[in-house]
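Tutorial handout. Part one gives the primary structure; part two gives the three-dimensional structure as tokens.
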Amino acid sequence: MNCQNCSLPRAVRVMTACVTVLVAMTACSSTGGKPRSSDSGMGAGQADTPRFTVAMITHGPPGDTFWDLIRKGAETAAKKDNIDLKYSAELQAPDQANLVQNAVDSKVAAIAVTLARPEAMKPALQRAISAGIPVVALNAGIDAWKAAGAKAYFGQDEQISGEAAGKKLAADGARKVICVIQDQGNVALESRCAGVKAGFGGAVENLNVNGTDMPSVQTTITAKLQQDPSVDYIVTLGAPIALAAVQSAANAGSTAKIATFDTNAELVDAIKGGKVQWAVDQQPFLQGYLAIDSLWLYLNNGNVIGGGQSTLTGPAFIDQSNIDAIADYAKNGTR
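Part two.
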């Protein structure tokens, strides 16, 4: 993504993240630093460093293409870094905390974790840190990772991203917006919609749906559009929800436009075809990659990325003006 598309005051950190990836991917390795081919075209020689076991523990629901991208980024970094990656996920915070405890009990070398519900996760993370296990956070918990004891954070500032989206809605001429939250209580998603409302400055109503039940998502959005025909813009917080909203609008006979946070390969086609107007990209592949790569750097050289500040991977906008470039990466399963 061309960093000219970044729309936040601290966009320089996105460039820092990009440089980190490029340095890591071109570093000398046991294969002489020459890249190897892979299905995604992202292969690299394996590092000649000790093999460590690292756990990545997220709140991603099964089958969600967004989390597939985070996992693929983590796996790409792990392959390059000679890391044995143990990925696991649970949507509910108590179950996710149990996974952290399992990782501690198995004596992993390091942990990367999402903090969608930070207060519920904090005790488990503190036990990991007390056991001498370094922790980094990614994707969710930008306001909580320091207090939880993590060494670094990789993701976007959801409030800033939401405000940027709200301003774009205003520029698009939107009048009444619904912001669809697929996981009620998730601090990242709640912050996005709060940001949308602040940036838009007009009528924004939150609509909670069950993101693990896509037929229910579609039905709930359809019912809302039928009940309130004045809604002219739907903002969703994930690509699968956006695609459900496209069908909901058709079912309701609504002319409401759809915009979203996050992307997947199918959403790329929807933007190309004009069914979705634009997407806010936080680069999930990059989040997964940087989280694992940063732990490799810490375990082998004591490096900490970010200087005590969050390393931002977004936001940037994807629309018809730049979708062709993104489509090439989406074909590789990395955007």
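Part three, for discussion. Residues 1-39 have pLDDT under 50 and may be disordered. Residues 52-156+284-304 form a domain with the Rossmann fold fold (CATH 3.40.50.2300).
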